[in-house]
Write a structure and sequence with these properties.
There is one protein chain. With 192 residues, this protein is of the alpha/beta class. The chain contains seven helices and four strands, in the order αααβαβαβαβα. Helix 5 links the parallel strand 2 and strand 3.
Length: 192
């Protein structure tokens, strides 16, 4: 994530990487699950919201032009922040759960709260994020007249942008996703 934040900064934006593991570096799925189990309820949401609060006060940032971007779990928290923060300008959700909680899958009221322009990047063969949920999210966003662009890479699995991913790293899809992201940011956020 640090590398991704540096890429965003190199493209001309103020970037802040939020450590959702609070200094712990899980190396296995079991370690990630243990950290998730022991993290207090709502802590990650509070951490992401605190980061946005910090940026809104930062002298190099226009408080009306703040966005969030996340991959996997971070993509889920990007979605949740877009729901919770009506002033958020953009949200880039990279193979995150666009309903954050299974009970929200059929809840259009959740989606209606989003004011941010959304770019969603997903893998067509992602077994963790059902494309039916992604398409339902897209349809609900469009139904409410919200700005949304969903990109699905048909042959990509979960975490396809991560070298060494168990689902398979896809260099061409990763490059295209990054190009689309920068175009999206340039259209919707001011650079430094």
């Amino acid at each position: 994530m640090e590398g991704q934040a540096l890429q965003v900064a190199a493209a001309g934006y103020v970037a802040l990487a939020v450590d959702l593991f609070r200094g712990k570096l899980p190396r296995t799925a079991e370690e990630r699950a243990e950290i998730a189990r022991t993290t207090p309820e709502g802590q990650r949401e509070r951490d992401v919201q605190a980061a946005v609060h910090f940026l809104r006060k930062h002298s190099s940032v226009r408080p009306d032009l703040i966005g969030v971007m996340g991959w996997c779990m971070g993509g889920t928290y990007a979605f949740r922040l877009a729901v919770a923060d009506p002033a958020l300008r953009v949200a880039v959700i990279r193979y995150g759960n666009v309903f954050g909680d299974p009970k929200e899958v059929n809840n259009p009221i959740t989606v209606k709260k989003i004011n941010a322009r959304v770019l969603g990047i997903f893998g067509g063969k992602d077994e963790r994020i059902p494309l039916t949920n992604v398409r339902r999210f897209e349809d609900q966003m469009k139904g409410f007249g919200k700005a949304v662009e969903i990109v699905v890479y048909p042959e990509a699995g979960h975490a396809f942008e991560v070298p060494g991913s168990s689902a398979g790293y896809r260099a061409d899809d990763t490059a295209d996703a990054w190009k689309r992201t920068i175009t999206f940011l340039r259209m919707n956020l001011a650079q430094r």
